[in-house]
Structure formats: C-alpha cells, structure tokens
Amino acid sequence: MTQRSTISIIIPTCNRLNTLFPLLDSLALQKESPLYEIDVVTSDDGKRDDTAQIQQLYPWVRYLRGPQRGPSSNRNNGARSTTGDLLLFLDDDCIASPTLLSSYVREWNENPNVSVFEGRITAIGTRTSHAEECPVNETGGYLWSCNLAILRSTFMSLGGFEERFRFPAMEDVDFRERLMERKTLIKFVPDAQVFHAWEIRTGWKRIRHYLFSKMFFAQLHPVKGSLKLSYFIKTRVREILYNGILSWNVYRFRGVSQLLLGIANDWRLALFGQFPALGRWYIARAKPCCAGCEAMLTTLRQAPVPVVAEVRR
Hints:
two-stranded antiparallel sheet, Spore Coat Polysaccharide Biosynthesis Protein SpsA, Chain A, 44% helix, disordered C terminus, alpha/beta
C-alpha cells in the first residue's frame, strides 16, 4: 500500500463526558500507525458546550455541536464533516479493543468488494437485573450502530441513518434492513472488538419511545409482517417465561417492573398488529411527552400501519 488509509471515526454523544473520555483514551492508544490515519469527530447533542475541555484533553478530536434531533441526526451530522473513505461509527459508552482499528483496516484492504464491516461487541461484567441491557454481538448478523464501519460512498448513497427516528431504538435495525434490501455485502470482523457495559434503562417514557420507533419501522418496512397475537404467544411469551425461570436465581425482583413494562408493551404491539384500526386509533389520540415524541407522532399519523416485529432487535 503506497499511502495510508484514512478512517473517519464518528462518535455521537449527549452530555456523557464520563463515558466518552474512556473511549477516547482507548482510541488514543492506537491513533498512531503506519497503516492508517484517523479523523475523529464527536457530535454532541447536549445543551452544554464542551469544546474547550475536549480540545484541551484530546486536541486530535474534532468536537461538533449536534442538531439535537436524536441519535440518527447526530451520527449523520458527524459523518458529513469527515473526509475518510471508511466511516467507523462508535457509541460513546464503548471501549475500543487494541486491535479495533488495525482489524478494520486489514479487512478493508483485503476485501475490496465488501462495503460494510460489522464489529464485535462484548459485554463488560455480568448482568444483574432485568432492567439492564447491552447490545451484545459475538457472532455477527446484528450490525448494531455502536460498532460498524462502512464505505463513505455506500453510506452517502444510502442517505445515512433515517433521521425521522428520534430515539435510540430501531434506527440501526432500519439501517441494516436497507442495506440488506440492496443486497450489500456485510462482513463480520471479530477482532474489531469493543466492550460495552450493562446499563440500567428504566421508565415508561423509554418504553413509549420504543413503541413509536417500532411502529415507524413498520411504515418503512411493511413487508416484514405484523406481530400477530399468535406470534407473540409462541415466541415472546415463551422466551420471557424461559429466560425468567432461568434467571430468577440471579435477578430475583431486581428490575422486574421494567420487565413487566416490556411485556405490556409487546402485548400492545401484538394487538396493533392483529387489529390495525386499534393502532391507528391509539396514534391519533396519543399525547407527546417530549419534542421527539411530537415529531414521531406527526410522522406516524401520516400513514400508520401495523407494527413490524419479526426482525432481530
């Protein structure tokens, strides 16, 4: 290779310097290489301007103010400011393994026909509550947005992440589905690894955001099929009961309220899939709890459809 490859690393964040700094520290250990150059951009959707602090501690990182319209817009905002031929998306709560960048560059050079590379995501520690989540990906096939690399030309031709998703839910599933509809080659790179902690995620607002996101996903990908009551009973209920019994000695009642909220939410999705008119009635009368909800409800009211659920999430 006559010249070094340039990797543009896009890190969306929002008022989370406490998790962003460990990620930048892990990238600092591998930013110097004869194989590649890096262009690191963090796009911050928070209301606080941390430009001075970032520039003082990490002068090799470019800090941008985000559009404050959700993670999809935030990622696109960072991507538009980069110049590298390979775009690497990382979440601010990950830690890069020492082989992350070199593995992506190696696969990029050895597979010129591949335009998307999926990295490995390993959980830190052990799950201790029903309310804890982690986007584990040890074998590929998920393409979670916290660790994926894509050629700039492919990303731009796809239009980036769908910005009408206002919450961190289903936007990366939509991104994966659009790539698959184009029959885009995706290669899993196990050595391109990041570490992600288990995080407690609770609250009825989060459950509601997930509901709206999944309903909007149905508008974009209706051919995937609806979540019928029969499908819900055969798969989701069985999964909940099976995992609940196996994990009872570990989790006990920790986070059980969030587990029950999730079950109720899936039951509601199943009803909307079985009875589309009920879903339309719900959307027409739903009240927004934030600006993001208001934007998604406006979109859903344009052409509400049954809820798609038969995708990996």
